[in-house]
UniProtKB/TrEMBL annotation, chains A, B:
Domain Transketolase-like pyrimidine-binding: 195-371
Gene3D superfamilies: 3.40.50.920, 3.40.50.970
One Pfam entry name: Transketolase_N
Originating species: Cercophora scortea
Enzyme Commission code(s) on record: 2.2.1.1
Top-rank taxon, per record: Eukaryota
Class of this enzyme: transferase
Alphabetized InterPro entries for the sequence: THDP-binding (IPR029061), Transketo_C/PFOR_II (IPR009014), Transketolase-like_C_2 (IPR055152), Transketolase-like_Pyr-bd (IPR005475), Transketolase_BS (IPR020826), Transketolase_fam (IPR033247), Transketolase_N (IPR005474)
Assembly and interaction partners: Homodimer.
Gene Ontology MF terms in the entry: metal ion binding; transketolase activity
Cofactor names: Co(2+); thiamine diphosphate; Mg(2+)
UniProt-listed SMART domains: Transket_pyr
Protein name, UniProt field: transketolase
Length: 524, 524
């Protein structure tokens, strides 16, 4: 019933994934009772409409040969995924068989007894395993060991004939990247052009795709906006379509964010590919369920999340994230990156690609961002660092992504017009910053200096780092991005105004304590 | 392609919604280009599998009569929803017709010119409207006014014959609830039994469903767990199924959270019903897209979100929300309630039901919660209040839901073993609390007293209210709920330990400033 399966299965049909066989345990029961209360569609017809091959096993409770035959038939269909409808009885043999009573509760003692008797077990014995079961398990185990040993020999022989391919596959299985790949990450200086960070992301993909052959990805129908496709990429498509082939490393996911997230998880779990997917940051939320599983299952999947704020402009509030960063920053084991320029973007990719057990969401701008003085890949890779230092500073401005450069302009405004010295902290990834030693974090947010965060979305959570917050705890507005930023005062003047209010408010407090100081540390 | 439409349309087919006609603008183009890159399923066959009636209009660009005939044919099908496949050309008439080039960019001047010439307009005129268009609009407008006037007369006449029904419908259209409905909300005293808050929610539904005839809702296949069905409710089902009828006010949504969210929005937008939907709190995230639209569109939809923490026990981390409250607390115009007992639950329902322009998520426990001394509906309806006061308190403990009663036990522990005086604040809804006058909020979180938040999930955002946070910034664990709470030290002792650490850490700071004090207020 869940839409995510509709998205994934429609795409699987389009891609003609002949190696995929799904078994549907059709017991006609959900938690609420009989499926006919809410689910009376013709499922096989639906899968046929997706381009799947479908088979039915009438007696899924007993017909083991029928099941084996169905699997065999499906394996022979090479150009379509297959669905086996296995008609079964939930709680088969129990006194409650065929009812939702057996879904979530343990069987009663009397029921277990009659069930054991029915299937030829001793009803008086508990946790008893017959010798013939042990024997069968040992036999199967030995067979498996023999097959594994056989495969290992074959793979070793393969290594003799095809050393490069063998070593590549062996390396991929460890999750390590090819040696030296990181030399491809671009490094910028302030003399370089202002570029949208989505474009910076595209540049990285173009520079690393050859060095990292396991990199495979695509977009949920926003390729030209997400800039997720490197030059000359081949689409992963059935050759018969004439649109690509199965060597292709670019996937057209369609408008299916949740399905894409689940597919990224599946590919990463398989273990020899490193998947990424693109959409607008605001629509990453559609895949919340899949990303939660990435984090819980410690899966390396990367989201290229462009159009990351009200800076996307005219599309307006339906497309402008407010709560999204807070949502995923609150998710354990999930890195949310929001790079401010080219070096920070390289840092985001470096950490995302080398974190084997953590998913990443890289939030990227639609609008151009200048290359900043003081941004350094190694520093950004710590999740947060001092981008602009001042001796005897009056205030710390902390920010991420497209607002960092406005903070830099606010520093000039504060110095020129108000004789105020402001330092600037860039905090592209909280999850990574929180893992740094406290001493380092305190050097970034030192005691004695009041601080103000600047980020054009929900202020939720910034209180961990700064004394005051400037954000957007309401929905955005539609208009050219500069007008929208101006409307909400995300300008050097608007930031300066709030910096002055912050200094004024905290001036009575002697040696202001940094929020980094806490009675006990519990963030990660 | 989006799964949410698959969920909603499958249910619409099951429910045989003959009044529903969907028009599919099938122009074969998505943002990435031709739909054949990702979407080659047989859509009409899929809709037939859902039980829909389907029609095709071959020339949707020109065949206006064909479109009218198709709509008429669909109106005649009373027991099935209908899908009209309208084969069209995107950017019809433009030089770029039939390509994705016309999706997101304005047409070039030369293209507009030839397009106007092609359709018989003067290519040199801009923003020109012909007199015949004005005439037609005026004619249609007059016809509409006449029809409205006719309907108003009919409705007035209906009021003469069926006064109660007429007044009920008129009232529903305003969004106001029937006078006196709130007298049905239960009030509790500490002598009353400990009850799970999901059960408290069920009690409220049972008490109010007769007083509020527009209340309609259901569950995404968790009826027995969410306790969303009042006694004697009739299921909303096609009469032919024998499972209910169309007077039914209980909806079996199936395992379709996102579809349920979208359906709640649609029903609320229609304006004469007040919809609610149930699922586990953790799975509310599946409907993030729909809830975002509830908030943005100012829609009153209520989520009954049970099993709201690691307190659900054995289902484990896949079912235990960590980031969910932070996610929806960061969403503008969305109330997240987490009542601690019966009175707070009545307050949550009171505010949720009377907030005409705001969705609510009511987070409810699986485990029993005692009725608390000091909990009062009116106070809880402010979003936060002092549940337990102490003179010259050493610390404020702030909490929500199932942890509030543990804080009360921690107060006793702190007094008995450590001679520490702790006050307790219950904060069932941040969104509502943040809207209270600053003076009130400061009385709840006063200057001079260090504070500690206690909530068994992400601590994100609690820094707004308290100096220190005790939460769970990691995934939970599977086990009986008492064991899981103990493992993570959500016990009176565990809270007391952190309260002592908090007091100790803040003792050097004279007259500790409450986090409510801010240089500028920007939370709502």
């Amino acid at each position: 019933m869940e839409g995510v399966s509709a998205e994934a299965c429609s795409l699987a049909g389009h891609l003609q994934l002949g190696n995929l066989i799904a078994v549907w345990d059709d017991n006609h029961i959900t938690i609420d009772g009989d499926t006919n209360q809410a689910f009376t569609e013709d499922v096989l017809k639906r899968y046929e409409s997706y381009g799947w091959h479908v088979v039915t096993v009438e007696d899924g409770d007993n017909d083991l040969e029928g099941i084996a035959a169905a699997i065999k038939a499906c394996q022979e269909v090479k150009d379509k995924p297959s669905l086996i409808k296995l008609k079964t009885t939930i709680g088969y043999g129990s006194l409650q068989e065929g009812t939702h009573g057996v879904h979530g509760s343990p069987l009663k003692a009397a029921d277990i007894k009659q069930l054991k008797a029915k299937f030829g077990f001793n009803p008086e014995e508990s946790f008893a395993v017959a010798q013939e079961v042990y024997d069968l398990c040992h036999k199967v185990s030995a067979e498996g060991a023999a097959k594994e040993s056989e495969w290992n020999k074959l793979f070793a022989k393969y290594g003799e004939e095809y050393k490069a391919e063998h070593d590549d596959l062996a390396r991929r299985q460890t999750g390590d990247l090819p040696e030296g790949w990181e030399k491809n990450l671009p490094v910028y200086t302030p003399a370089d052009d202002a570029v949208a960070s989505r474009k910076l992301s595209e540049i990285v993909l173009n520079k690393i795709y050859q060095a990292i052959p396991e990199l495979i990805g695509g977009s949920a129908d926003l390729t030209g906006s997400n800039l997720t496709r490197w030059k000359g990429a081949i689409d992963f498509q059935p050759p018969s379509t004439g649109l690509g082939d199965y060597t292709g490393r670019y996937i057209r996911f369609g408008v299916r964010e949740h399905g894409m997230g689940a597919i990224l998880n599946g590919m990463a779990a398989y273990g020899t590919v490193l998947p990424y997917g693109g959409t607008f940051l605001n629509f990453v939320s559609y895949a919340a369920g899949a990303i939660r599983l990435s984090a819980l299952s410690q899966i390396r999947a990367i989201w290229v999340a462009t159009h990351d704020s009200i800076g996307l402009g005219e599309d307006g509030p339906t497309h402008q994230p407010i709560e999204t960063l807070a949502h995923f920053r609150a998710l354990p084991n999930c890195m949310v990156w929001r790079p401010a320029d080219g070096n920070e973007n390289s840092a985001a990719y470096y950490v995302a690609l080398t974190s084997k057990h953590t998913p990443s969401i890289i939030a990227l701008s639609r609008q151009n961002l200048p290359q900043l003085e003081g941004s350094i890949i190694d520093k950004a890779a710590k999740g947060g660092y001092v981008l602009h230092e001042e001796e005897n500073a009056d205030i710390t401005l902390a920010s991420t992504g497209s607002e960092v450069c406005i903070c830099i302009d606010a520093v000039k405004e504060l110095a020129a017009k108000h004789n105020i010295k402001a330092r600037v902290v860039s905090l592209p990834c909280w999850e990574v910053f929180d893992a740094q030693p406290k001493e380092y974090r305190l050097s970034v947010f030192p005691d004695g200096i009041p601080s103000l965060s600047v980020e054009v979305m929900s202020t939720m959570g910034w209180e961990r780092y700064t004394h005051e917050q400037f954000g957007l705890n309401r929905f955005g507005a539609s208009g050219p991005y500069k007008d929208v930023y101006k409307k909400f005062e995300f300008t050097p003047e608007g930031i300066a105004k709030r910096a002055i209010a912050t200094i004024d408010f905290w001036k009575d407090v002697p040696n202001v304590r940094s929020p980094i100081n806490r009675a006990f540390q519990q963030l990660i």
